[in-house]
Amino acid sequence: MDDLTTPEYHDDDLDYLWDTQPTEIPPQEPAPDLKRPPLPIGQWLKEAVQLVLIVVLVRVGMDTFLPRYVVDGASMEPTFYTSDRVIVDRLTMLLSGPARGDVIVLDSPRTRDELLIKRVIGLPGEHIVIREGRVYVDGVELEESYVKEYCTYSSCDGEWQLASDEYFVLGDNRSHSLDSHSFGPVKASTIVGIARVRYWPPTKADVLSAPDYVETPTPVTP
Question: Alpha-carbon distance 161 to 144, whole Å?
Fold first, then answer.
């Protein structure tokens, strides 16, 4: 007869058996379905119309207060050249007005439905004198670093007293510009807006601002 023996278990064996017992995992509830229910056709059309209206309002707002223009001509060289594109700020004209040195777009005093781009030189109420191409504002010479060549023709010289709603505007290319040399001061109501950004060509894209003028310390009598 075979001897029956009871197997011996050591502590290490018991630990192994204990650790390898299957662990019951409590059942988990399925994750909730977060899918959006399909919109009724009426609701879909409503949202589409709202989106179109928002796009239209943004576009109309930009065209109204930030219109874009293309430069055509040499009157503002070397600051601007033909085909340069600018964004114009109309809102500032409604709130205050341009500062000296701002580049503006205005209605031509000579030709209907034509726009001009010029630089503001004289402000309302000022006395402007031009002698040998140099500009004097209330007797003080204006230093203009943006002018490459001054106009020395006698036709460019003159004297103007600006009214409370008038500006004096000149092109940077003084000898080749139709501006206040010829048609005198312009009314504030004829100014469309102030050029704030040049966005074309991309290599010349920049934010536009009025230059810092260095005025002669004491008035000069031209």
Answer: 20
Active site residue 209: no
Contact 140, 129 (CB under 8 A): no
Query: b vs e for 187-220, b when ≥16 Cβ sit within 10 Å of the residue's Cβ?
Result: eeeebbbbbbebeeeeeeeeebeeeeeeeeeeee
Among candidate residues 35, 96, 118, 154, the one labeled active-site is 118
Could you report how far apart the first and last alpha carbons of the chain are, in Å?
Answer: 141
User: How, if at all, do strands 115-122 and 206-207 pair?
Assistant: unpaired
Is 118 tagged catalytic? yes
Q: Note whether 120 and 98 are within 8 A (CB).
A: yes
Active-site pick, 75, 108, 148, 189: 75
pLDDT digits (tens, 9 = 90+) for 71-129: 999 999 999 999 999 999 998 888 889 999 999 999 999 998 899 999 999 999 999 99
Is 0.90 topped by the overall pTM?
A: no
**Residues 120, 124, 66, 114: is their CA dihedral positive or negative?**
negative
Q: Distance between CA 194 and CA 104 in Å, rounded?
A: 4
